[in-house]
């Protein structure tokens, strides 16, 4: 038997602040209404919300690229962020947290000073590239220190002329700070994006804590945490907005079911999430599932979208190429969870969980890659392919995230060999 399920993102409720990284003060928490309602409800423009705090040239640039009306998370958080308070930005995926914290960064920077004044810590190179691009477009010196980057060359640049803002992964940040390539003494704003992900690794937490306590003063900076899934939350999602679909099939049928779904949905663009290859499978010399799925689609899919691949083991140049290729084009991106956090590809209409995510949090972040255009009426959906014995896992995610799945008979909808 096969089934489909409906699921929709909605509001996230406040959490207990995480205290892993004392000595921060975390004074602000809020909940968020559904994204679309949030946009409709906005009364003031972004310019009005930021008046007198964010430099005019930044606001002008924001308007040029289409950021005119604040999303609800921006409307709610900016008055606090711009007043310099420490904040937890805990709001659903695609709600506009990045622009909220970036505007706060711009309000705090003295553009005439040549020193590192803001640090944005990100979990992955891809998210870092995205944030750095958004910042760079706003005419300010920004340097991205990301795993696999040219840290040696950057070390001399950063020494010669320290950028106002650094966007960094923890590992590359440690390397540069420990080599004394720059100082964090003038840092006014610290942002930790996808904070729960970074706090999920004790190694990253201890490295970050060491850097922050040794090289910057907690009392003189603003700290902002951002994520759609802050730890210790009481409850996650409610309020249906979009249809999300789940299907049951046997492992063998998955590729063909996926193909049928793609034909039926005709996505504008889609991301197909596939499990990372196990060590055992690597040792056995098997190709990664991502490659298998991408190869299958390249041969069998007859639609107009480009089939692209993104996975951990690809070298950084190949990863960067895949990431920049998908920008602005119709694509079917086959990826591991590397694309599940922070990735902002607004044209993504459909998500397919070819393999189940490991946790409910991972499910949330994967699902959040769609429905990201606040003003769009694009039909969006999340589809999960599961076998009968995986049903209980999905049930666990539903219980934890408080969403409801509806099942849809497979045979009536598809024919596959
Ligand atoms: N005020 C705005 N007007 C129009 N579009 C906006 C506005 N703010 C943000 N966006 C767009 O909304 C999309 C989602 O924003 P963003 O990436 O900041 O979400 P997020 O909350 O950080 O999501 P995630 O938790 O998944 O990282 C992006 O395409 C961004 O360009």
UniProtKB/TrEMBL annotation:
Residues 78-248 form the Helicase ATP-binding domain. Residues 254-416 form the Helicase C-terminal domain. This is RNA helicase. Its EC number is 3.6.4.13. It comes from Sorghum bicolor. One of its GO terms (molecular function) is ATP binding. It catalyses: ATP + H2O = ADP + phosphate + H(+). Pfam families: DEAD, Helicase_C.
